[in-house]
Specification:
Elements (H helix, E strand, L loop, with lengths): L3 E5 L6 E5 L1 E5 L3 H7 L4 H22 L3 E8 L7 H14 L2 H6 L3 E5 L7 H14 L6 E8 L1 H17 L10 H7 L10 E4 L18 E4 L9 H12 L9 H13 L1
Parallel strand pairs: 3-4, 3-7, 4-6, 5-6, 7-8
Antiparallel strand pairs: 1-2
């Protein structure tokens, strides 16, 4: 079944398909700053403003999950001063008001044990305080990479096999999915990457097997409501076949409509 909703615009005149889960690779902060003769950290700060705007917009549209690629395991290789600035920015960006005002729950995925203790404590505290919110779930990917995640899942499965609680021939796609850090949420319907690069950069590789991909040249700090709605508009016109023919998809949709 296609994991999308139909909602009516504020005018009540048009219904649009809204993906249940949107994942975003927020790229271009540094280049945005460089183009303006600013320090890279200024680009990251402006990027936080975009996070606030898109979070509020996505929540208002009825999107259930918004996953943001915030800091990858590869980002640890950046200059120490930039890593320190990013960690400090993550701390200041953890605004409880943003989550409470929009009834948003926060979750994290990634190797958070690598994060500074102060950052870890702030994240855990915010997760606990927003756990009772019933609106959109914002998932922050911190110290995350898909290869790290898949390696962790493989190790967990291998331990179960070694303990005799799982037979190798009984390992399925569902077995792997259950061991991933994203097991609590559906796979992304739409993945957006800003900044002009056309690659996944080790992000949700397993989960994005059937995701619709949207790439744009806009740097993340400039990715506002207009750009976000462009991505959703393009998603509306994609036909999600999951290996089926167009005719099969049409028949399935008709059956769902009249069932």
């Amino acid at each position: 079944m296609m994991s999308e909703q139909h909602i009516t615009s504020g005018s009540g005149k048009a219904a649009i398909h809204i993906p249940r889960h949107v994942a975003i690779i927020m790229d271009g902060n540094g280049r945005w700053a460089k183009a303006r003769g600013l320090n890279r950290s200024m680009g990251h700060q402006q990027g936080v403003e975009t996070v606030r705007e898109i979070t509020t917009l996505a929540s208002g549209l009825g999107i259930e999950y918004l996953t943001l690629y915030t800091f990858s395991t590869e980002n640890w290789n950046r200059p120490p001063e930039e890593v320190a600035a990013l960690m400090s920015l993550i701390l200041t960006a953890m605004e409880e008001e943003l989550f409470m005002k929009n009834n948003v729950r926060m979750r994290t995925i990634g190797d958070i044990q690598r994060l500074p203790e102060e950052v870890r404590e702030a994240i855990v505290g915010l997760e606990q305080r927003t756990a009772g919110n019933t609106g959109m779930t914002m998932v922050i990917a911190l110290s995350y990479s898909a290869r790290w995640e898949l390696t962790q899942a493989a190790q967990k499965i291998a331990r179960r096999v070694a303990q005799g609680t799982l037979l190798p021939e009984n390992i399925t796609e569902e077995t792997v999915s259950r061991e991933l850090s994203t097991s609590f949420m559906p796979d992304p319907d739409l993945l957006i990457r800003t900044g002009g690069e056309v690659r996944l950069s080790n992000y949700l590789l397993w989960q994005c097997a059937y995701s619709e991909l949207y790439f744009c040249n806009t740097f993340w700090p400039d990715f506002g409501e207009t750009e976000f709605m462009k991505a959703l508009a393009q998603y509306q016109h994609r036909e999600r076949r999951y290996g089926k023919t167009s005719e099969q998809v049409a028949n399935d949709n008709n059956e769902q409509t009249y069932s």
